[in-house]
Each structure stands twice: as C-alpha cells, then as structure tokens.
Design brief:
113 residues; disordered N terminus; mainly beta; globular; six-stranded antiparallel β-barrel
Length: 113
C-alpha cells in the first residue's frame, strides 16, 4: 500500500487589478445591485424624490434578485414594495429571464461610494 502523499499546489486567489473605484465607476446605469453584484436590469424607471419612490416599468434578468433585500439603483438604496406582475419566463422574450412589471420601490437613502 502506497502511503506517500502528494502535496497539491496551494490555490492562489486571483489578482484583482481593478481598484474599487474603477469597479464602482463601471456600474451599469440600468443595473440593479445587491451586495455590489449586478442582479437585474431596469427598463423605464422614474425616480420621484418627493414621494421617495422609484417606479420601474420592467425589471428583467432578475433571477438572482432577492426581492425582500435592499437593492441599489443609481445613487439610491431602495427596497422593493410592490410588484404588479411577475413571470418566470416571458414567452415573448425568453432571453429576459424572470420579468417583473409595475415595480415600486421605496427610497431608503443614498448609496455609499
């Protein structure tokens, strides 16, 4: 019985060449983020600072969006409160993934840089 052990090469973490500032600058203008990760895209959003709401006609590619958790959109931290329509697959556009329509979110504050 061979009892010799092979030593595996230690796994090196990937080098991150981009600074945090450049990652923040690379945010998508139509992106919805949670924990700094892009989790959905937004179409036709209206920001109403008086009512402290963001109204979004459509949120798509939202399979990884955790709805009850806080999100970031643009310069704001938001919390989704109402969804008029949700569909796992839009048959007219299956490439959009999970689609939410008529989404209203409360503005909680501004996001930290």
């Amino acid at each position: 019985m061979d009892t010799s052990r092979q030593t595996a090469n230690p796994i090196q973490p990937p080098r991150i060449s981009k600074s945090l500032e450049s990652v923040e600058a690379a945010r998508e203008p139509d992106g919805l983020y949670q924990k700094r990760a892009l989790v959905a895209r937004v179409a036709d959003a209206e920001i109403d600072t008086e009512a402290r709401e963001v109204r979004m006609n459509e949120v798509y590619l939202s399979d990884t969006l955790v709805i009850p958790e806080e999100c970031e959109y643009g310069d704001y931290r938001i919390q989704i409160q109402r969804i008029e329509f949700a569909s796992k697959i839009d048959r007219a556009a299956p490439e959009k993934g999970r689609v939410l329509r008529g989404v209203t979110a409360d503005i909680l504050g501004t996001r930290e840089p």
